UniProtKB/TrEMBL annotation:
This is SpoIIE family protein phosphatase. Pfam families: GAF_2 (PF13185), HATPase_c_2 (PF13581), sCache_3_2 (PF17203), SpoIIE (PF07228). Keywords: Cell membrane, Hydrolase, Membrane, Transmembrane, Transmembrane helix. The chain crosses the membrane at residues 47-72. It comes from Streptomyces andamanensis.
Length: 927
């Protein structure tokens, strides 16, 4: 339309004046002159008539082609179906078990005629014939044909199965011929089956009327469609005449050349048909560009490729000289008379530059956001430095190096000596920089690194080849760096709280542009965020080390010597820090041993301090030789007092310890008696000498600090060689499994009769715990031993002072058997004093027990709860010096209370006689 308007401008008639119609239903635009009538839309030269004629021809051709194709396809399908059905019926009958046998009968016709009729009716075919090897019909669906000779069956007599279209008598048919073979694979007859040709086309004859009806309907629809198209063309032209159309084209032409967007119309042959003024300006087209091929216009390669290929693109940016043009192309079809291409161009040079700067800024903001998310994910100094390098590589720099002060790496406060650092992280490929772990020294005062440290801000070196000071520090190393392609640097000091922690260097290599001032701001922001994360990790490392040191100091370092149990232990802190799990092995009088395992809920310094307080309390209460339930009762009262808030402002960091659990066990090697009491703690595992594992059903009391509930005890008698496995819940319970599954795994790991306590600990640590457990674990494994019965002596003493000498004589005899004559005097003195006090001040029954182990223990029990008290008797007192003598001759002595009274015990070391203080003895005996 546009091109035509330029050619018809000189021939255009003057527009006629006329009033526009006031009818609102009509579209705005020029109206035809009054008195003119549009030609009839059905005239012989109109477009409507031509479209109608063309559509009629197309419909007739399509109907004829469809009918022909249907006939051919129908005949082909019918013939193919008839062959398959005939072959299936003939093969089924020929291969039937009785067919071959019938040929050997005296009268084959009698045996075959009925099956032939039945098979023909069941298969839905026209005929089945059974022939002998001479081609004579023995049975046929047409009985009148029996005895006649069939044609062209010699191939079947020779053993070949085939199908063909038979022409001849009795009727033309599509048939299948199948030989009949006996058991020895010899042809004894032939079966033919088929469908008559006239029946094959029966279906086609039914479809022809349908095709003709469809053709008539299509022709009617084409006529109606043509009428609608003609009516629509009449409405769209509004009855305009040549003058009105010319004026409309001139208006379009004026608009085309006035817009600030270039427009090209290219024909189907690639020649330029039209270019407006803006297109000529943007593309620098020559004056004679019209009708020239687009490849001859000197356009940019990308633009030429789009116009020649006729591609449809939207806002594709192509360079044109020093400009960037946004190109949109659309095909003229179906809007024009001939195929072609319409291309429009917009100058986006300034917009592209602005969007490029916005894209760069957006990328930098994205980088800083990712840095805030990815840097400092762990409280590890080295890992934080590696995260800084990982974030910056390929987004800001090609290679990133991070150096930190030695003090920072060890969690200490950074010192003022900042010119010696350790390379901690290195990220990037193909570079000759020093590896991780090397010591980096800044010895030249004017290098970019030293300048950055001195100024406290980033230093940009856009071209390293021109940086003489940097090359002077290490000329050989600098040469290798430059040879590898690295050419630009930003050095940023890592500062937090006004103190330098280290240095990060951003390097760019071959293929990347130089660093600019905008990159310095991003590098400084990255360094500031990383410095805060590194300082947090350093402070955490220091505090963690302090907490671990405190916790280790609160846990037992070495187990005490004792003969009742063979003990091994393990402690594994949690990954997140120190915890409140603890254990202890406490020797008790009479060769008994107390085993303790406890757990304070939570982690950190508070849990470790609470654990230390509880362990100290257990040690103190154990020195009183209390039963397990009484000890836990005292411990519960202590925890309750600790949980009571003190007067004063609340700082939010109270020392509440509610949630602590404890298991307290006392093992007596004389008889293997074991007494348990537990406060909210998991029950121990007991492994007998043959490897059977049980979890005894012991009374369970609430955790420490709950109060209001009495503690109960449970008792077991363990054979020698049994193993007690005491543990905290972190061993059997975590996020991956519940406690029942953990107990099953524990039982499987310790169910070995020959395992020592040390091997049991090792097996449990390897089987039950991951490399970094989420909760701390305390494990205590003890294998029981029994005191030799020959080393135990017991005497029941009558409640009479005269019995003291008799028992003393018996004890002396037993000491002689034990070859302890050197200890006889001291033992007799101790026994005399204790036994005399028990008879004089106690209550029956009175019993004496001597135990021999690594020491010699003398125990005197009576039925009274009165506790003796050591004191210094005055010179005028007649008594009160017995316990003083006991304390002088015994290494240790004390009292413990039992259910039916008390036991006073004294312990002496073997191999040496006690040496009491002579002055003290004389002073006490001076009366």
């Amino acid at each position: 339309m546009i091109g035509r308007s330029r050619r018809s401008r000189s021939k255009a008639a003057a527009p006629r004046d006329g009033r526009r119609s006031a009818d609102p239903s009509r579209r705005p635009g020029p109206r035809r002159p009054p008195g003119r009538r549009l030609p009839s839309p059905w005239g012989p030269g109109t477009l409507a008539a031509q479209v109608f004629l063309l559509q009629v021809i197309v419909v007739l051709v399509l109907v004829a082609a469809a009918a022909t194709a249907l006939v051919l396809q129908g005949r082909y399908d019918g013939d193919n179906d008839a062959r398959k059905r005939s072959l299936a019926a003939a093969e089924a009958f020929a291969h039937a078990p009785g067919t071959a046998l019938a040929f050997a009968a005296p009268d084959p016709t009698k045996l075959l005629q009925t099956p032939v009729m039945q098979a023909q009716a069941g298969a839905g075919i026209d005929f089945i014939s059974v022939l002998n090897t001479k081609g004579v019909r023995l049975a046929d669906t047409e009985p009148r044909l029996i005895g006649t000779r069939a044609q062209d069956v010699s191939r079947a007599v020779a053993g070949e199965t085939f199908t063909d279209t038979f022409h001849g008598k009795p009727a033309d048919a599509v048939r299948a011929v199948v030989p009949v073979m006996d058991a020895s694979r010899r042809v004894v007859g032939v079966v033919t089956a088929g469908i008559q040709v006239e029946n094959v086309g029966y279906l086609l004859d039914q479809q022809v009327p349908m095709v003709l009806g469809s053709a008539a309907l299509a022709l009617a629809l084409a006529t109606a469609g043509t009428a609608l198209v003609s009516r629509r063309l009449q409405r769209q032209t509004h009855g305009l005449g040549p003058a009105e159309m010319t004026r409309m084209y001139e208006h379009h032409d004026a608009v085309l050349h006035a817009v600030r967007e270039g427009v090209l119309i290219v024909g189907a042959d690639g020649r330029l048909l039209l270019a407006n003024d803006e297109a000529r300006r943007l593309l620098l087209l020559p004056p004679d560009a019209d009708q020239r091929h687009v490849t001859e216009l000197g356009l940019a390669p990308d633009l030429t490729r789009i116009l020649v290929a006729g591609e449809v693109v939207s806002d594709e940016v192509c360079p044109a000289g020093d400009r960037l043009l946004a190109v949109n192309t659309r095909r003229t079809a179906p809007y024009g008379d001939a195929p072609g291409l319409v291309a429009s161009f917009r100058d986006t040079t300034e917009l592209r530059a602005l969007s490029g700067r916005a894209e760069t800024a957006r990328g930098r903001l994205t980088l800083l956001y990712e840095a805030g998310v990815r840097i400092g994910t762990t409280l590890d100094v080295r890992r934080t430095a590696e995260e800084l390098a990982e974030v910056a590589v390929d987004r800001l720099a090609d290679v990133v190096t991070v150096e930190l002060l030695e003090a920072v790496l060890h969690g200490e406060e950074p010192t003022g000596a900042v010119h010696r650092m350790r390379r901690t992280a290195l990220r990037g490929s193909r570079h000759p920089l020093q590896p991780v772990g090397d010591l980096i020294q800044f010895v030249v005062a004017d290098t970019p690194m030293v300048a950055a440290l001195r100024q406290g801000r980033a230093v940009l070196v856009p071209d390293l080849r021109a940086a003489e000071d940097w090359r002077a520090q290490d000329p050989e190393g600098a040469g290798r760096v430059l040879d590898s392609g690295i050419h630009s640097l930003i050095a940023v000091p890592l500062r937090a709280r006004g103190v330098v922690l280290g240095m990060v260097n951003f390097w760019r290599g071959a293929g990347s542009p130089r660093f600019e001032e905008e990159d310095v701001a991003v590098a400084e922001e990255l360094g500031a965020r990383a410095a805060v994360a590194i300082d947090n990790a350093r402070r955490y490392s220091r505090e963690h080390a302090m907490a671990v040191t405190l916790q280790r100091s609160l846990l037992p370092r070495d187990l005490p010597e004792q003969d009742a149990l063979e003990v091994a232990w393990r402690y594994r802190p949690a990954q997140s820090g120190v915890g409140g799990d603890w254990f202890d092995v406490i020797p008790l009088p009479g060769f008994r041993t107390a085993l303790v395992v406890g757990d304070v809920v939570g982690h950190g310094l508070h849990a470790a301090v609470t654990m230390g307080r509880l362990r100290t309390a257990v040690l103190n209460f154990s020195s009183l030789d209390l039963p397990p339930d009484e000890l836990l009762g005292h411990l519960d009262e202590m925890v309750a007092r600790l949980d009571t808030p003190a007067d004063g402002p609340d700082d939010g960091e109270g020392s509440l310890v509610t949630g602590a659990t404890c298991l307290y066990v006392i093992y007596d090697p004389v008889g293997g008696h074991c007494t348990f009491s537990r406060a909210g703690h998991v029950a121990p595992a007991v492994v007998d000498p043959v490897g059977r594992v049980t979890f005894p059903d012991l009374p369970l009391s609430p955790p420490l600090g709950v109060g209001g509930h009495p503690f109960e005890t449970g008792e077991l008698t363990l054979p020698e060689g049994s193993r007690l496995v005491l543990f905290t819940d972190g061993l059997v319970e975590d996020r991956r499994r519940d406690i029942d599954e953990g107990l099953s795994l524990l039982a499987a790991a310790v169910a070995h009769p020959d395992q020592s306590p040390e091997e049991t600990c090792r097996a449990l640590m390897e089987t039950m715990l991951p490399e970094h457990p989420s909760d701390d674990v305390a494990l205590l494994v003890a294998r029981t031993r029994l005191l030799d019965p020959s080393h135990v002596a017991v005497w029941d003493v009558p409640f009479d002072v005269s019995a003291v000498s008799r028992v003393r004589t018996q004890v002396s005899g037993r000491l002689a058997e034990w070859r302890l004559e050197d200890s006889a005097f001291a033992t007799e003195l101790i026994l005399s004093e204790l036994l005399t006090n028990a008879i004089r001040y106690g209550a029956p029954p009175v019993r004496v027990r001597m135990l021999l182990g690594r020491t010699l223990v003398c125990e005197v029990s009576d039925g009274s709860n009165t506790s003796p008290r050591l004191r210094r008797a005055a010179t005028t007192d007649e008594g009160g010096r017995g316990l003083f003598l006991v304390s002088q001759f015994a290494d240790r002595w004390g009292t413990r209370y039992v259910a039916d009274g008390k036991v006073i015990w004294a312990e002496q070391s073997l191999g040496r006689a006690p040496e009491p203080d002579p002055a003290a003895l004389i002073d006490q005996l001076a009366w």
